[in-house]
């Protein structure tokens, strides 16, 4: 699992996340800053796993998560809210609490690959 799709509406956080993933040996193959582009990318792009921000400019990323579930793609939430949004499935997904350190991202990615 090397190719990661990032869904994040804050450009600085997306860039930081991309750098951190590169340090861990992953490659960001796609990113989306809003729900519309995230849905299109999740549907039409090949990747191994995704990292989703819970809120995209006030819109929930839950529709993206549902699409990833349908495609059998693993994902985790990176959020300042502390939990995955209501309706998320499965409930045991890794949730990465913002702000996070490289070691926390590494642990979350390991949990994701073991799921």
Automatic annotation (TrEMBL):
Swiss-Prot/TrEMBL keywords: Phosphoprotein
Domain Response regulatory: 3-113
Pfam families on file: Response_reg (PF00072)
Gene3D superfamilies given in the database record: 3.40.50.2300
Residues that bear 4-aspartylphosphate: 53
InterPro entries named among the record's database cross-references: Bact_response_regulator (IPR050595), CheY-like_superfamily (IPR011006), Sig_transdc_resp-reg_receiver (IPR001789)
Segment forming the signal sequence: none
SUPFAM superfamilies recorded: CheY-like
PANTHER family the record matches: PROTEIN-GLUTAMATE METHYLESTERASE_PROTEIN-GLUTAMINE GLUTAMINASE 1, STRESS RESPONSE REGULATOR PROTEIN 1
Record's protein name: Response regulator
Source organism per UniProt: Rhizobium indigoferae
């Amino acid at each position: 699992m090397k190719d990661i799709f990032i869904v994040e509406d804050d450009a600085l956080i997306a860039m930081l996340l991309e750098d951190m993933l590169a340090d861990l040996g992953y490659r960001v193959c796609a990113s989306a800053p809003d729900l519309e582009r995230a849905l299109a990318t999740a549907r039409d792009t090949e990747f191994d796993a995704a990292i989703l921000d819970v809120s995209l400019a006030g819109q929930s990323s839950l529709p993206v998560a549902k699409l990833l579930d349908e495609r059998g793609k693993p994902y985790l939430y990176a959020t300042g809210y502390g939990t995955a949004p209501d309706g998320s499935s499965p409930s045991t997904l890794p949730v990465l609490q913002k702000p996070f350190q490289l070691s926390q991202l590494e642990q979350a990615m390991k949990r994701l690959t073991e799921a």
